[in-house]
């Protein structure tokens, strides 16, 4: 009888031991499967940040754009009859070459990796912004792939103008148009600032049509931006 009991106990112990091994294996396998599922979900999310779920034709720009001003005149008229605006050059790098890809555009980050958006910004060489919203400014720089200094003038708001592959020679304004005249080149970047107090739009509720042009009045690029008055910061304090 004793031997029978010992054998039974040994068998039970062996069964329990095997069950523990199976349980441990199941737990490891479950963790492995869950890990794979998490990786797949992560890759699916990265794909969504890169391209549309289904193949489709997307208009440029791939996001809502400001409407152009209701009235504007030919570039040559702005250059010939417009008001000359003084500007400050804050960056002048004639040897700069725009990169084809920046590391922070990678899908592992996601915020700036959407391919249609990347193509849109690559098509442009003129970029404009005010330094009034840090989050918007951050996106502005990341989308350009270029960092510029921010001065945040507290009494006379600056409008920042970035021109790639152009040597800026003059800035003119008429109505709701601002024309940046420059000589085209293969490389380089210039960043200038103008005072919004120097712009006198016909309609302050409409956007400004910013245009990069040759001296002959041939448009190289354009951008649309809302008009913000020069005393913006002072009004924010009130």
Q: Can you lay out the helices and strands and say which pair or pack?
A:
Elements: H1 2-50, H2 75-81, E1 83-84, E2 88-93, H3 115-122, E3 126-130, H4 134-144, E4 158-174, E5 177-195, E6 207-213, E7 219-226, H5 232-237
Parallel strand pairs: 5-6
Antiparallel strand pairs: 1-4, 2-5, 3-4, 4-5, 6-7
Globular, elongated, flat, extended or rod-shaped: what is the shape?
Answer: elongated
Tally the beta strands: 7
- What separation lies between the terminal Cα atoms? 97 Å
Structural class: alpha+beta
Rg over alpha carbons: 30 Å
The secondary-structure element order is: HHEEHEHEEEEH
Major sheet details: 7 strands, mixed
Strand content: 25-35%
The level of helicity is 25-40%
pLDDT < 50 stretches: none
Average pLDDT? 88
Number of helices: 5
Describe the protein's architecture and organization.
Strands 1, 2, 3, 4, 5, 6 and 7 form a seven-stranded mixed beta sheet that branches. Strand 4 (158-174) and strand 5 (177-195) form a beta hairpin. This protein starts with a helix and ends with a helix. It has helices at residues 2-50, 75-81, 115-122, 134-144, 232-237; strands spanning 83-84, 88-93, 126-130, 158-174, 177-195, 207-213, 219-226. With 238 residues, it is of the alpha+beta class.
């Amino acid at each position: 009888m004793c031997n029978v009991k010992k054998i039974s106990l040994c068998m039970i112990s062996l069964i329990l031991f095997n069950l523990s091994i199976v349980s441990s294996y199941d737990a490891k396998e479950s963790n492995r499967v869950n890990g794979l599922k998490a990786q797949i979900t992560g890759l699916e999310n990265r794909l969504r940040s890169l391209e549309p779920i289904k193949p489709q034709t997307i208009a440029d720009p791939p996001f809502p754009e400001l409407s152009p001003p209701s009235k504007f005149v030919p570039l040559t008229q702005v250059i010939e009859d417009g008001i000359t605006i003084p500007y400050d050059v804050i960056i002048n790098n004639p040897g700069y070459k725009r990169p084809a890809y920046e590391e922070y555009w990678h899908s592992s980050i996601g915020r700036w990796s959407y391919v249609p958006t990347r193509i849109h910004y690559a098509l442009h060489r003129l970029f404009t912004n005010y330094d009034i919203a840090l989050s918007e400014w951050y996106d502005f720089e990341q989308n350009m792939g270029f960092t510029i200094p921010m001065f945040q003038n507290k009494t006379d708001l600056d409008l920042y103008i970035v021109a790639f592959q152009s040597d800026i020679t003059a800035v003119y304004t008429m109505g709701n148009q601002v024309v940046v005249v420059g000589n085209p080149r293969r490389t380089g970047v210039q960043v200038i600032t103008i005072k919004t107090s120097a712009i006198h739009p016909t309609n302050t509720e409409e956007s400004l049509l910013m245009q990069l042009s040759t001296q002959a009045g041939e448009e190289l690029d354009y951008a649309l931006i809302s008009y913000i008055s020069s005393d913006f910061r002072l009004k924010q304090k009130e």
